Amino acid sequence: MQLTRPAPAPAGPTTGQAGPAVVVTDLRRRHGDVEAVRGISFEVHPGEVFALLGVNGAGKTSALEVLEGLAPAAGGTVRVLGADPLADRAAVRPHLGVLLQSSGLPSDLTVRETVALWAATLTAPRSVEEALAQVGLTDRAGLRVRSLSGGERRRLDLTLALLGSPRVIVLDEPTTGLDPESRRTVWTLVRQRVADGAAVVLTTHHLEEAEELADRIAVMRAGRIVLSGTAAEIAATQPATVRFTLPAGAPPLPDVPGATVVSAAPRVELHTRALQPVLVRLLAWADAHGLVLGGLQARAASLEQAFLAVADGADPS
Amino acid sequence: MTTSTAPTVTPSRLRRTLALAGAETRLLLRNRTAVVNSVLLPLLLVAGVPVAGLGGDGPLGARLAVTAVAVTLVFLTYYNLVTTYVARREELVLQRMRSGELTPVEVLLGTATPTLLVTVVQVLLVLAGTAVIGEWSAPVDVVLPLVALVGGMALMTLLAAASTSFTRTAESAQITTLPLVVLASVTSGVMVPLAAFSDQVAQVLRLTPIEPIVELARLGLAGQTWDGRAVDWAGAWAAAPQPLLVLAAWIAVAAGVASRVFVWAPRR
């Protein structure tokens, strides 16, 4: 796969790097009687990647569809480059690149014909051949879309989303179905766009993707954002874990301030938000009693841990 | 933020629509069965007339052409567009197209273009066929049949878009398109002449969606009013205002309904 710098994005409804490219304020969306999005707010600035995480049905795609101008909001406002993506469609669309969670393409067109068709509808398309080369589809250009693998179709979809050098990019699960190499290529393409000043909003079920790409993350549950911040900030909402095995005949564990015993001897598990002082106290106690803490592990909380805690319905700290 | 003064070159609506229309036409041409059917059906219609006959008064070629306009619009344009729109919706192609710079109207028009082209080709083939079998007669007026054809294509496209709201799959279009097909067969004056009904019933039937298309085509091609009176060019235009207004009203109603009920993605 070949990576080249994309053409500059066309000027849009508003320019400059000072303000946010995307502003979502108290957004609500309904599907019949179901309130899929219940008042979420966030901003994304140029040159920033914002990730929306959540289990299936959390409301991520419903929120993105409003952002993409494909569905009306039931309440609240969405502004993309200062304009309403639905009401001011013509102003926003030339600057918006969209990768839907699932979408179709005419299956009897070839890959090259598909990209050329899309390019013919855009204000500032990049070269078809260059775009195909970026996602490693040059050698598949003459094949019909129906004969592509799932991963190749996803890369073709991404090509179309990025073909117009958009200033705002919305990616709904961009790497679903991709092999690890293709996934890294997608990450590189996204980073290039971000380096060129694009604002990216993405959803993903791959937490390592969010950690790798996103500057800020919001975790949704039942239509609401229940956690937001950097990956480190979100992970820090959960306690660190200390695990070890006590030898037979060891004295009872001392009271360690700031630690909660989750599992008692001999296979001990402690949770704490003050990992270093707890470890120091624990090791001092073991040393004083001549004990070896078998299989000692001390692990800071991870994004996955925080995500799973939220998915399980725990209230974030 | 500051307002940009940098110029951008936005592709015209026409260029965008033509790009999609070109791709859709390419897809049609790759479907050999569809291409062969498109040519064969009108030729069979022409070939069948000497065998089966065609009721009514006036020149046979003109009556054949009027029948071709109505039959093609209902059985080809309307039915094909319902199945095409539904298939594209279920394959998520419509939603994909709508996520770019193409406007909703451009997506629908571009997708419909091959069917509309085939409609025109089929009517032309029937006209050519009438000449081949020696039944060609010069039309009283050219504009009225053209308005009937273009207005009819617009109406069928909009009715097809509206009909997708109660058509879940392309296969079920065989059922969901029946009401319009039956309505057109009974009330349009093609298969059952309006003169066969009482005057009050005939006046009501003149308000149905397909009848004004047939009436305009008949005025121009055969020089006949809805009740069978022979008219010249001036008489044809004198009789044209009502069907023109009814057709325009149906187009407006269908546009309003389609814009409200058209669904771009499969229901969840």
UniProtKB/TrEMBL annotation, chain A:
Q: A GO CC term? A: plasma membrane
Methyltransferase as UniProt keyword: no
* UniProt subcellular location: Cell membrane
Task: List, alphabetically, the PROSITE patterns matched.
Answer: ABC_TRANSPORTER_2
Keywords annotated in UniProt: Antibiotic resistance, ATP-binding, Nucleotide-binding, Transport
Q: Does the entry feature the keyword Oxidoreductase, yes or no?
A: no
Q: Which GO terms describe its biological process?
A: response to antibiotic
Residues crossing the lipid bilayer are none
Positions of the region Disordered? 1-20
Listed InterPro entries: AAA+_ATPase (IPR003593), ABC_transporter-like_ATP-bd (IPR003439), ABC_transporter_ATP-binding (IPR050763), P-loop_NTPase (IPR027417)
ABC transporter domain location is 22-247
Among PANTHER family, the record links this protein to: ABC TRANSPORTER ATP-BINDING PROTEIN (PTHR42711)
User: What is this protein identified as?
Assistant: ABC-2 type transport system ATP-binding protein
Q: What species was this sequence derived from?
A: Geodermatophilus obscurus
Automatic annotation (TrEMBL), chain B:
Alphabetized, the UniProt keywords read:
Membrane, Transmembrane, Transmembrane helix
Q: Where are the transmembrane segments?
A: 34-52, 64-87, 107-130, 142-163, 175-197, 244-265
Q: Boundaries of each ABC-2 type transporter transmembrane domain copy?
A: 65-256
Principal localization reads: membrane
Localization recorded for this chain is:
Membrane
Pfam families from the entry? ABC2_membrane_3
Q: Which GO terms describe its cellular component?
A: membrane
Record keyword Transport present: no
Membrane topology of this protein: Multi-pass membrane protein
**GO MF terms on file?**
ABC-type transporter activity
Record flagged with keyword Transferase: no
The protein here is known as ABC-2 type transport system permease protein
Which organism's genome codes for this protein? Geodermatophilus obscurus
